[in-house]
Amino acid sequence: MNPIVSIQNLSKVYQGGHQALKEINLEIKEGEILALLGPNGAGKTTLISTICGIVSPSSGTVTVNNHDIIKNYRESRELIGLVPQELTLGAFETVWNTINFSRGLFGKKKDDAYLEELLRELTLWDKKDNELRTLSGGMKRRVLIAKALSHQPKILFLDEPTAGVDVELRKDMWNIVRRLKESGVTIILTTHYIEEAEEIADRIGVINNGELLLIEDKKELMQKLGQKQLIVEIKEPIETLSTQLSKYSVSLSEDGSKITYTYDTRGDGTGITSLLQAINESGLSLKDMQTTQSSLEDIFVNLVHDDGGDQNQHKNSKVEKPHAH
Predict the structure, then answer these.
(1) Tens-place pLDDT, residues 144-180
(2) Fold match between domain 5-223 and domain 227-293
(3) Angle formed by the axes of helices 218-225 and 296-304, to 10°?
(4) Would you say residue 214 has pLDDT above 90?
(5) Cβ–Cβ < 8 Å for 256, 242
(6) Regarding beta strands 186-191 and 155-159, do their DSSP bridges make them parallel or antiparallel, or are they unpaired?
(7) What's the rounded Cα separation, in Å, for the pair 81 and 318?
(8) How do residues 102-159 score in pLDDT, each as one tens digit?
(9) What does residue 199 show for φ and ψ, rounded to 5 degrees?
(10) Helix, strand, coil % (nearest 5) of the chain?
(11) Where is 281: in which H helix or E strand?
(12) Long-range contacts of 42-45, Cβ-Cβ distance < 8 Å, separation of 24 or more
């Protein structure tokens, strides 16, 4: 099956020399939910804006359902719905008029039944005659989704859809996204909430400094995020690990003073208790202990420096971080 979006060697350099995207290659499958994770300024919005035809690429190609986004702009743009990060809505227009007008912009025939169904799906039907200025931030976010879906696109881009909304609305949004997927819409969302990607995505892409560092099945990436390390400092350095300790997933630092144990927080048990017992039985005295956990930033660095072991060791010696939220 051909990808619904195909991106090849895509780069974007803004005036002034800032390179927002660097040789991005990505294929998005029809009907999937793809989450693009990355910190602020990573290039997520530039990537989405380029695919949607808002930003011109410096080099490379993008096709949407085999339509080139520059040569076949109208055909490709008709297939796309975009929900921007900012709440860009007029103040005095009603909800109904806003989405009706948006549908007309794409040259679609009048279809009040579809728009009613859409507003009901987004819990906006009872607000259809309300002026936009009277709505809460969460309701305005729903109106933006209704606008993006008004012309029945095949692909929906959601740029930070739950930024600044409460937990209840965030969960509502996740349910809306799932239902859209069931109806055959391909969804690409940008987020820096790891739990958001974990909850709804099929695949996860990681972007940092304009580079696509990874595109991977969600379960595999989450397994990496679930890894922790216990670093045990011993009083008297040793040259090699005893047979007893070699049974565990441990490594010894170059100076022989630290034993590092990697374990999966999602497993049935960590094995720490039995490891500490084995250290004790080996006649070693403990000086200090600390744990570290992969943060999103660590994963970025580890991906970029995959063959640079020193860099990985440096990152893993950090003090424990909480989950990214």
Answers:
(1) 989 999 999 999 999 888 776 777 778 888 888 898 8
(2) no
(3) 110
(4) no
(5) no
(6) parallel
(7) 41
(8) 999 998 999 999 999 999 988 899 999 999 999 988 888 889 989 999 999 999 999 8
(9) -70, -45
(10) 35, 25, 35
(11) helix 272-281
(12) 42/207, 42/208, 42/209, 42/210, 43/12, 43/207, 43/209, 43/210, 43/211, 44/159, 44/190, 44/207, 45/85, 45/159, 45/190
Tokens of 67: 């339509």
Amino acid identity, position 24: I
- How many other CB atoms are there within 10 angstroms of residue 149's CB atom? 24
Distance CA(321)–CA(312), nearest Å, equals: 16
Q: Cβ–Cβ contacts within 10 Å for residue 50, how many? A: 24
Give exposure, 129-143, as e/b (b: 16+ Cβ within 10 Å). eeebeebeebbebbb
Tokens of 169: 């609305």
Other beta carbons less than 10 A from residue 15's beta carbon: 5
Mean pLDDT of the chain: 84
Pick the CATH number of 227-293 from 3.40.30.10, 3.60.40.10, 1.10.10.10, 3.30.70.1560: 3.30.70.1560
Q: Per-residue DSSP letters for 233-272?
A: EESS--SS--HHHHTSSEEE-TTS-EEEEEEETTSS---H
Supply φ then ψ for residue 206, to 5 degrees.
-115, 125
In this predicted model, what pLDDT tens digit does every residue of 40-74 receive, in sequence order? Answer: 888 999 999 999 999 999 999 999 999 999 999 99
For the four alpha carbons of 176, 180, 183 and 189, in that order, the dihedral sign comes to: negative
Q: Look up residue 266 and give its two tokens.
A: 């999602």
Entry pTM = 0.71
Whether residue 189 contacts residue 33, with contact meaning beta carbons closer than 8 Å, is answered with yes
Domain ranges, ordered by start, for the chain: 5-223, 227-293
CA distance 48 to 320: 33
Size (the chain), residues? 325
Class of domain 5-223: alpha beta
Tokens of 138: 């969460």
